[in-house]
Structures are given as C-alpha cells and as structure tokens.
Amino acid sequence: MANSSTMPSLGNFVQSSTFSHASLPQAIPKPTEAVIPVEISLPTLKVLYPNPELTEELRRVDLDLIEELRETTAVRRASYQQKMRAHYNRTTARTPTGETPFHLTYGAEAVIPVEIGLPTLKVLYPNPELTEELRRVDLDLIEELRETTAVRRASYQQKMRAHYNRKVRPREFTVGDLVLCEATLTTKNPAKGKLAAKWKGPYVIKARI
Prior knowledge:
Blueprint: H1 7-18, H2 37-41, H3 45-48, H4 52-91, H5 101-106, H6 113-117, H7 121-124, H8 128-167, E1 178-182, E2 199-204
Antiparallel strand pairs: 1-2
C-alpha cells in the first residue's frame, strides 16, 4: 500500500505530465514499462528465457513509436491552439467597438459547444418559429448596430488622438540647426548589443520642405 504522504505528489505528477487543457499529453513518457519486483520473480517466458537481441529490437521499435507519437501530439496541439486563437479573436469584444467581430458579421452572439450541451430552456424546449422570428429581428437591427459601432469607434479614436497629442511637444527647426536621428534596429551595430548608440548624427538641416 502506497504511503499517504506520496499521494499528493503522485497526483500532481500525473496531472502535470499527462493531461493538458487541449486533452493532449503535455509530455510523452519514456518508452519503458515499469516492472514491479513481483513480476521479476514470476516464472514467465521473459524471465525464464531472456533474449537480449529481441529485447533490443523491441526497444528500438518503442523509440520509433514514441517519436512518432510526439510529432503527432505536437501537430495536434498546434492545430488546437490555432483554432482556439481564431475562436478567441472572433468572439472577444474589442475595446474600440464594444462588440465582437462575430456579432458585427452575423448579427448574433457566438455560442460555444459547452453552452449547447447545457440543459437550458432553449435546448430542452426548442421553438423553431420563435427562433426564426428572433433571427429576422437580429438581421433587421444589424445595420443599426454597425452604425452605432462606427460612431463608437470614431469616438474612441478621437480620445486616443487627444491623449497622444497631450504628450507631444511640438518643436520647429530652422536651416542650419543640428539634429540627431534615432537609430533603428537596421542601423544599429549588432556587435555592440545594448551598448550601441541610440542616436546618429549630428546632421545639419540644409532646407525645409
């Protein structure tokens, strides 16, 4: 019987090393079967008649299979993350508009699969006629929703512009003044790293355009 003090650590190991949110293993265990001491003492064919060559061959097959499993798991995890990212971008309300792109496109809020399986009145007692009528109302109001969203976006951009302009300090230069140009990543010397100069110049202003 396992010691009670080891049970939390064992549970944490199984949870962190075997399961993930994407229903895929986060780490593939090594292709080695654990053998308890009782199995070693049992008179099995593997114990009575060991075959090192066959064992080594099976070991190589296990390594090939585990590598293929890791590649398949990585591809499935990347595909799942891409789908979740796309779903998040379409169903998350934007700050400038206050609406989701899905709502602005189709005139209705997106429903996740979990909500479909919930025992709500809409799911337990569907009413196709009422659903069709509500859908027509949503389509009639979608133009008004888009116009309101456009006004809200313009107001948000105006506020952001005003906030930015409050921090801007306008300066005028005349011909003959010396100015410095900010060094970008393409103009900086990569060999100097963090010690590279942030400004280039000085340059003389020859004309105003």
